[in-house]
């Protein structure tokens, strides 16, 4: 069995705990999450997989159970411990009895304040989480008695970092503000050159800021953000969907981007873009 993002909405809503971060961390963290698969694995003793499409940012994976398999594009990784996962590629996680995962989905990790790490160097594989987080903190999260306790530990940990280093690194603030602006306003037509001018920096400098903080170029990051928002609305509310709202100048422009985004060879027997386009066609016919 395979659950697919944007399609199997109930699965991702009901079989994962998801909680927003504490105030002040929203520009860095999308949400904390934890699997709750006990009943599902009883129904599917041979296991199942969850497939997700490219995203901006990255995920910290903390393994609370037995080893599991994570696929990034066409490469499979046997995960026995904890990992750092760039989210710029399609991923598929294979779950079996005994697996339990806790994760943090980041836009930009506050750890960048402490380490000055360049995330562009970490966008091809899964890396040990201990590269980016102290093992003592990871161990404390694993020893916590509940999901809520894990969240409290990490909220305090990341808040202490942002408070200590607040205002000390301009690239983080600029990239975070642009991502928040584009997401909240559906502004995907303002050029990188215009954004750079607003912040009185060179466009090349802004490109470098994006790569350092998100691992993606400025154009790629905003394109992924745009198509994800469009696909989410199309899958959830096809009758209200309008491609112009997301800056696409015509139907074929949107369709081309949609097919590039949803192409994933590991989704067997399913053409996700065709399902979504069928929803669009039904909407157009009804009008």
What descriptors fit this protein?
44% helix; alpha+beta
SSE layout and pairing:
Elements: E1 2-4, H1 9-14, E2 16-19, E3 29-35, H2 38-43, E4 48-52, E5 58-63, E6 68-72, E7 75-79, E8 83-86, E9 91-95, E10 101-106, H3 111-115, E11 127-128, H4 135-143, H5 147-165, H6 170-185, H7 192-198, H8 203-214, H9 218-236, H10 251-262, H11 272-286
Parallel strand pairs: 1-4
Antiparallel strand pairs: 2-3, 3-10, 4-9, 5-8, 5-10, 6-7, 6-9, 8-11
Helix pairs in contact: 4-5, 6-8, 7-8
Give a concise summary.
The chain is an alpha+beta fold and 287 residues long. The protein is built from 11 helices and 11 strands.
Strand order of the largest sheet: 2-3-10-5-8-11
| Average predicted confidence as pLDDT | 86
- Net shape: globular
Low-confidence stretches: none
Tell me roughly what share of residues is in helical segments.
Answer: 40-55%
Which value, in Å, is the CA radius of gyration?
A: 19 Å
Structural class determined from secondary elements:
alpha+beta
Number of helices: 11
Give the ordered list of helices and strands: EHEEHEEEEEEEHEHHHHHHHH
The end-to-end span amounts to 36 Å
What can be said about the biggest beta sheet?
6 strands, antiparallel
Describe the 3D structure:
The longest helix is centred in the middle third of the chain and has 19 residues, at 147-165. It is globular and about 50 Å long. It starts with a strand and ends with a helix. It has helices at 9-14, 38-43, 111-115, 135-143, 147-165, 170-185, 192-198, 203-214, 218-236, 251-262, 272-286; strands spanning 2-4, 16-19, 29-35, 48-52, 58-63, 68-72, 75-79, 83-86, 91-95, 101-106, 127-128. It has 287 residues and is of the alpha+beta class. A hairpin with a 2-residue loop joins strand 6 and strand 7 (75-79). 44% of the residues lie in helices and 18% in strands.
